[in-house]
Amino acid sequence: MPSRKEQTHAKSPGKPASPPYPPVGGSGEFMGHWQTEMAELRQRVADTDQALRQALAELQDTRQQLRDARTDQAKTEAALHEIEQRFRLLGESIPFGIWISDPQGALEYASPSFLEMTQMTMEEARGLGWTRSLAPELASLFLEQWRYHTQTGQEWETEHCIRGENGERRTVLIRGRPVRDAHGRITSWVGVHLDITARKKIETSLAEHVRKLSRINAELEQFASVVSHDLRSPLTSISGCAQLLKELLPNQSDPEVTELLDNIQNSVRHMGRLIKGLLTYAQLGRDGLKISQCSTQRVLTNVLSSLRAVVTETGAQITHDPLPVVQADEALLGQVFQNLLENAIKYRGQSPPVVHISARSTDSHWLFSVKDNGIGIEARHFDKIFQIFQRLHDDEHRYPGLGVGLATCKKIVEEHGGQIWLESTPGVGSIFHFSLPQPQAV
């Protein structure tokens, strides 16, 4: 019986069977083909591996981005929460009401101060509920204004009355500003309610004081007019009568009578000077200050020109540093310099008067100083000498005057918003200081 191999070969008589492997003679071609396929396979494996590695890296990067995004979101949420907490703490700590509304003006948030001011809870105030705290007769006008601003987007500021605790009316300053997004659309309104009741009471009180002062000033002007005319007329009559009596008396009349008549005339003249000084002081600055750019160098030059005679007579030496340009009433500033220089010359010691004028700038003022070598003033009289008609010396012949000059200086300097004061040592001299405000940069 033939074997399975023989049976197989027998099925194809005349045709040789193909060998299972290529013959030894064709091995080179086979190996080249096989190596090429293996190289391609290795390349595909390498490419696949590279693609897998890249995909894995991208997956890891995506996972990291997701983790970072979650972290950023958590940070953002934490930051927003912190900002919200700060805002609420701020709203609870400041003494005026803070509110936030939607674009149409409906209230969404109110600080505790706002709720206390309106005597409402948050639920009661929400939306337009807070408007129930407005004074009823003014509520419709207020709401009309509020609607206008929410529609136009214009910032809002107004004063309004609300009903406070126990029905007491409070005056509130209300300010509102729109909050806009990147496209300019209004997303909300933020504003404040500030209770200005106390301030309004002060303003009312000040207005009443101003009215009273205006009335008093008018009465003083009327009094000055009376002093100027009605009191001078009797003095003129008294002086004329005394002069007539002197002329009617015989040449050999009693000397005591003549002396009495001379005293009457001297007293009348002195009274006339007092009336003139009072009138001048009362009318000082009545028409308001005529403020302008004023060269104190020019003012002093004009004053020295008017004092030339007394300077020459007394041998006074008056020097000065470079002086600034200031904002002042030139005529009144000249009066200050003239009065101070006249006093320095009048109250001189045994030596001829030596006077020096200087000026220096501070942060807010110009500080002027007038230094002399006169008889000086005791410290206990520093305040007294700036009061009208207050004189320290009774010797009218040696130290003539009315006690008006320094009071005038004080009034002028204070009208300009400055101050005047002095340093002095008896027997050595005095330094009078006065200040004038400098214009402040805006």
Question: What does this molecule look like?
Answer:
- The protein has eleven helices and twelve strands.
- The chain is an alpha+beta fold and 442 residues long.
- The protein has three domains: 106 residues, Beta-Lactamase (2-Layer Sandwich), CATH 3.30.450.20; 82 residues, Helix Hairpins, CATH 1.10.287; 147 residues, Heat Shock Protein 90, CATH 3.30.565.
- Strand 11 and strand 12 form a beta hairpin.
- The longest helix is centred in the first third of the chain and has 67 residues.
- It is elongated and about 170 Å long.
Helix fraction bin: 40-55%
Termini separation (Å)?
130 Å
For the record, the CATH architecture of the largest domain stands as 2-Layer Sandwich
The structural domain count equals 3
Radius of gyration: 51 Å
Secondary structure category:
alpha+beta
H-E string: HHEEHHHEEEHHEHHEEHEEHEE
Can you tell me the CATH class of the largest domain? Alpha Beta
CATH topology of the largest domain: Heat Shock Protein 90
- Global shape: elongated
Average pLDDT, all residues: 79
Instruction: Note poorly predicted spans.
Output: 1-25
CATH superfamily of the largest domain: Histidine kinase-like ATPase, C-terminal domain
Number of strands: 12
> What's the number of helices?
11
Strand order of the largest sheet: 2-1-5-4-3
Biggest β-sheet: count, sense, barrel?
Answer: 5 strands, antiparallel
What is the beta-strand fraction?
Answer: 15-25%
